[in-house]
Design goal:
The chain is an all-alpha fold. The chain has one domain. It contains 13 helices and no strands. The two termini are 37 Å apart.
């Protein structure tokens, strides 16, 4: 019995640590932690709820690791946070009214589009800048580089609302979508948009946490183990991401997005 329990908690602990680290880097950690909960016998609905609760502190820890970069968005951050919370709540309500099977068929296509957009975001953002600022002016989307401030334009809030709804509805791949949405707006520092992604992901997770805890849908023995290891993984991953080059991190994100896309195309092809 003791050996079995040790194996169970070791599996979910390691999976949560890896998921927290992956989420702090780019997203997709749910693909590791959710199957681990299923593997140890947690029912699917409870596994989904427990996974959301467990990874929430990891997103906060990762955001704290990127706090200096996050503060460059301080003027836009309050409204972005509100948009993320509203979108996450709307996505959660949508989930209650929609079949998971129906939405799952859209997931690989969403991930494919997000990955392609992120991979080619430098070229696309330069094209958008030429089209929107023909006189050589600055449209202000990326803020004043000399002052260190970064400003989110109206389109950015719309993008974030859509991504937040997606995150509240089905969180897998949310980080990829958020990173691509920010990159398309012209933010070329991957560490900065990673910082914003981690914070907004934590906000969206908070909606799920509140909902699932109130509903009593959380397996607390499993969740508490994952909270600890997932938080350590999130903070450690955030520190690691800040120590590697932006180019390497961008390549990692593109590879991860491609792998997730193939995995979900394979999964939906089985049904």
């Amino acid at each position: 019995m003791d050996v079995s329990l040790l194996a169970t908690y070791s599996l979910i602990g390691v999976a949560a640590f890896a998921a927290g680290a992956m989420n702090s880097l780019a997203g997709g950690g749910t693909f590791l932690s959710f199957p681990a909960l299923l593997a140890v016998g947690v029912p699917p609905v409870m596994a989904n709820a427990s996974n959301s609760v467990a990874l929430w502190p990891g997103s906060l820890a990762a955001a704290w690791a990127f706090r200096n970069e996050l503060m460059r968005f301080r003027k836009s951050l309050p409204l972005l946070t509100l948009v993320a919370f509203i979108g996450g709540a709307a996505g959660g309500l949508l989930l209650l009214a929609t079949s998971n099977a129906a939405f799952s068929k859209l997931i690989p296509w969403l991930l494919l589009v997000a990955t392609v957009l992120f991979a080619f975001s430098p070229q696309i953002s330069r094209l958008v800048a030429r089209l929107q600022a023909p006189a050589g002016g600055n449209d202000g989307r990326s803020g004043d580089r000399s002052s260190g401030d970064r400003h989110i334009g109206p389109a950015g809030f719309v993008f974030q609302l859509l991504v937040s709804i997606y995150g509240g509805f089905f969180g897998a791949g949310m980080g990829i979508l958020m990173l691509s949405a920010l990159a398309i707006q012209g933010f070329d520092d991957v560490h900065e948009i990673n910082a914003l992604k981690n914070w907004l992901s934590a906000v969206i997770y908070s909606v799920a946490v509140l909902t699932f805890v109130i509903a009593g849908a959380v397996s607390w023995p499993h969740t508490l183990v994952m909270v600890v290891t997932g938080t350590l993984g999130g903070y450690g991953g955030g520190l690691f991401a800040r120590r590697i080059s932006a180019r390497s991190l961008r390549r990692f994100i593109v590879v991860l997005g491609s792998v997730l896309t193939l995995v979900y195309f394979y999964k939906t092809g089985l049904h």
